[in-house]
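seq:
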Amino acid sequence: MSDELAIIPQLIVGLGNPGTKYAQTRHNVGFDLLDILAKRWQISLSDRKQFQGIYGEGFGSNNTKIRLLKPQTFMNLSGQSVRATIDWFKLPPESVLVVYDDLDLPLGKIRLRMSGSAGGHNGMKSIISHLGTQNFPRVRIGIGKSAGEKDTISHVLGKFSGVEIPIVSEVLYLVNDAIEMSLKQGMEKTMSLYNSRSIPVPDAID
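struct:
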């Protein structure tokens, strides 16, 4: 058995910005995914000041103990919240699974990785800086690049269109299923199955 195969997430972090202004925006798909996990696993989430985030713990698939975290520091300071949480529970960085949006992936696609750079994502830059390593697993959720007339910030902080919403909903449930599998069989096996999967996108928004 390889080391990667043995990696089972203990803390799942969904990235986003706090406040109603940013709810359901493209940049907040990590928050949306955490809400789905919490509902499926019946985990109650509440504000935890010592973690600078919304936090809950319980049991995921296969009765695995799991912790969920939505940093409330704003995106570019997400690492503060993650660091405080892993220090409190004495968790190794490789047990942290981070879920976040990715401009470089088309809508409908997801990518699981064991490690890697921030790829220009400010939340990931902060986490890598605070953990002192980029060797922790992550799930990137494609939000696609902005249309020609829209700048990147407006695109990322904008809400999904009516056509995109059902696609994103399916993607989030695909990620949910991938995470369920990772808790049972580890990250490497999950990557081999889910990195080839995607949700079809109509030509009109492809």
